[in-house]
Each structure stands twice: as structure tokens, then as C-alpha cells.
Amino acid sequence: MSSFQLEDFAAGWIGGAASVIVGHPLDTVKTRLQAGVGYRNTLNCIRMVYKRESVFGFFKGMSFPLASIAVYNSVVFGVFSNTQRFLSQHRCVEPEASPRHSLSDLLLASMVAGMVSVGLGGPVDLIKIRLQMQTQPFQEANLSLKSRAVALGEQPAYQGPLHCIATIMRTEGLAGLYRGASAMLLRDIPGYCLYFIPYVFLSEWITPEACASPSPCAVWLAGGMAGAISWGTATPMDVVKSRLQADGVYLNKYKGVLDCISQSYQQEGLKVFFRGITVNAVRGFPMSAAMFLGYELSLQALRGDQAVTSP
């Protein structure tokens, strides 16, 4: 039987949509904390966003990720599942002698998914962050770095996702859509390893031996824990990525990954790389729980299975 299956992509799309709806408000808070100014902590950020922009401020830039991140997650989950299945089927050992899930197969499949994610997800993340950050107040001392025709902080730089894409293409070219891609690559390759691998082994560990596959409750719990682990450990490079991608809304401050790390450390110390770690880990649980549960239940429905299956 061929290892390639389209159902994984369709189920990934449904799971991706669920994760965006659940996680976008906290994602906005995370981005503001990492790349913005004037926020003391998570609760202070939430209060300030609500005070300035009402509840709609937490959903800034959501339409674009809802339409695109679902496709992005579809590709990531489809690539991971099909790669892992291909490696498992072509491993040069007797099936009876090999474990159900080989760590090396999961590791390689996660790395491939991480690399693919940057090619598709880099522009998606960039547009989302630019839209989330355009109402962020900027320090007056930095205004000389780059002038705009509009008054900063009074008028949004972008009128929507399409205008944002057109503006970046006009001012920065195609390369501008992949600003921060190097940092995203350094975040996503280890990040997806710490996403898929804990999920697979946690779901197996939670599931009783008498059951052939994990229950929805096990999927929800294992997916949530995997998300918290992955996003928590990815925070330092996520900070760098967010700053590079937010850079350019009004200002051009960083020359690259190393320059961003250097400037951030000199100005704010080591603690800057752990900005948003709490909200990252907290939002990682419901987002990933919704993602994996949506994926597994959709896969079950599409294949007509009676039990939830692992990727």
C-alpha cells in the first residue's frame, strides 16, 4: 500500500482552523509582549490592549491566519504523517521486531515538517504579526529611524492582509515576505521535534494497553501537553522571530538574526528572550489540544474508522 494519504492533509486543515480560533487572542498578547513596548507583564498587556482597542484588539489579523494557517497546518501535518509512514514502511528491519513508532523516524519526519513549515508559514506569520503590531505604540526616540507619511500610532499602516502583502512586496520585494525566516527555521525544526514526538509517546503512555488507539480525551491531553512543551522551549527564538517580523511596520531596526539577538540582549538583558514564555506555554495547551483533537477526529471520520488513530 502506498504511504501517501491525502486524508492527513484534509484532517490537518480542520485541526488548523480549530487551533487558530482557540489560540489567536493569546497569540496577539504573546506578539505584543515580545515585539512591543510599554507592557510590564502578561496581565498588564491584556488590560492595555482591551482598554485601547476593546475585545476586537485580541482578534487583530485573525482573518488571514484563519484562511491561511489552516492550509499551513494541513501541509505540516500531511508532510509529517506521510514522511513518518514512508520511513516506517521502508525501514530495513522485520516489522515484528520494530517498535510501533521509531524515535529516529519521528525525529526525521518532524525535521522535514519543520523545514516545510518555514517555506509556507513564513509569509503567513509575517502578515499576522504586522497586522497585530500596527496599532502598537512606538517610542518617540525611534521615529527618526524611518519616517512615514501617516502619523505614527494614529493611523494603521495596513488596511488589511492584501494591502499588507502589496505594501511589503512594493517596499521590500519578495524577500520581504520571508523576513525572519532564518529565526523561524531555528525555532521550527527543534520546535516540531518537541511537538510531534512528545504527542506520540504521551498519547501511547496515557492509553491503556487494552485499547488499540488513544481516546479523544487522551488525544486532547497529550496534544495540549506537547503544545505547552514545544512553545515553552521555543520561546527564545520565537522572540527573535517576532521582533524581526514586526520590524518594518514603521521602523527598520535589525539587520538580521544575530543583530537582533545582540541589540535585544544589550538593551534588555537575557530576560528579553523569555518574554511571553508564560503566555506561550499557556496558549500552547488549548491551541495544540484543539489542533490534535480536530486532526484525529477528522481523520477518523474521513477514513471511517471506529477509533482515533495516531499520526
UniProtKB/TrEMBL annotation:
Alphabetical list of PROSITE patterns matching this protein: SOLCAR
Segments annotated as Solcar repeats: 3-86, 101-205, 214-301
Membrane topology recorded in Swiss-Prot or TrEMBL: Multi-pass membrane protein
CC terms in the record's Gene Ontology section: mitochondrial inner membrane
GO molecular function, one term: transmembrane transporter activity
Keyword vocabulary terms for this entry: Membrane, Mitochondrion, Mitochondrion inner membrane, Repeat, Transmembrane, Transmembrane helix, Transport
Classification via InterPro entries: MCP (IPR002067), MCP_dom_sf (IPR023395), MCP_transmembrane (IPR018108), Mitochondrial_Carrier (IPR050567)
Domain of life: Eukaryota
Similarity-based family: Belongs to the mitochondrial carrier (TC 2.A.29) family.
Name of this chain's protein: Solute carrier family 25 member 48
Species annotation: Sciurus vulgaris
Gene symbol of the encoding locus: SLC25A48
